[in-house]
Structure formats: C-alpha cells, structure tokens
C-alpha cells in the first residue's frame, strides 16, 4: 500500500510554468523603447456597454521600430480608444488619422528606465512567490503522504524532486528578469 504513493510532479511543474507564463505576459506589457503590439493589450475600452480589449476593436500593427498603429474597425470607437490610450498611463500621445490611431514610441530617459527595471523586479518577485507557493503545496502533499505511510526514503526523494523543480523555476525567473532589465536599460 505504501509503495504506490506518489507526488504529482507534473502538476507542480505545470503550475510553476504557469507562473513563468504570467511573468512573460507582464514583461511584454513593459515598454522598453521599442514598439510592440503587446504594449496595448492590457488597455480596456468602454465599447458597446462593456470593457473590451483594444485588439478586439481593431488591428494592431508595428510598421516600424518606434510606431504602433491601430486600425479601428468602427469609426464611432476611434475617440473612445484614443481616450483609453491617453488615460492608460503608458506615457504615449496617440495621433489620429481617420480610423487609424498612431502611437509614436518616444525614447525612454534614464530615470524612466530605472523605474521600469524596478517594476520588472516586482513582477519577478511575484512570480518567485507563486513558485514558492507551489513548492509549499508539494511539500504539504509529501507530509500528507508520510502520514499515509510513505517511507522516509521516498519522502526524501520526493522532497529533493520538488526542491529541484523549484530551483529550476526560480533560476528561470531570475534569467528572464536579467534579460528584461538588460533590454530596458539598452539605449
């Protein structure tokens, strides 16, 4: 009976990868001085009585390195989208030409770059906390299995497996943070 007790490492791994996916999404919304379509993803517009993402109201393109364009499908929504972009806190001043909204990406100054690296560090810390919470859940599963009759050797084995998975996920978070901070600080 005690020999068939196992810890679901695949589930723990999947949940830790979910934290990394979330981190990558948050990092993609950080402005680095280069244009990216993901820059406008978090912006919601009050359209047709509900909050709608911009990419559901028009086509988002990046025609050049410092320009994002949004081709709004419904002409009545142009002003609402423009207002939402202004109020989003991106620090970008949209320019409208018919149904096309152009977002010129200005150069980042040194102070703003440092602020963005601090924001990136906060995002990474949230991801580390999420990974550690998954680790704690795994260790709790091991404790429960020990109470159900898991041998001490198996307990040590599974604890080492969970810890190795955690170390790998934390290293991935740190690596992603270093890459994003280097990208932000690049002039």
Automatic annotation (TrEMBL):
The keyword Cytoplasm applies. CDD domains: RRF. GO terms for molecular function: ribosomal large subunit binding. InterPro entries: Ribosome_recyc_fac, Ribosome_recyc_fac_dom, RRF_sf. It comes from the Bacteria. Residues 23-185 form the Ribosome recycling factor domain. It is found in: Cytoplasm. Its main location: cytoplasm. Gene3D superfamilies: 3.30.1360.40, Ribosome-recycling factor. Belongs to the RRF family. This is Ribosome-recycling factor. It comes from Frigidibacter mobilis.
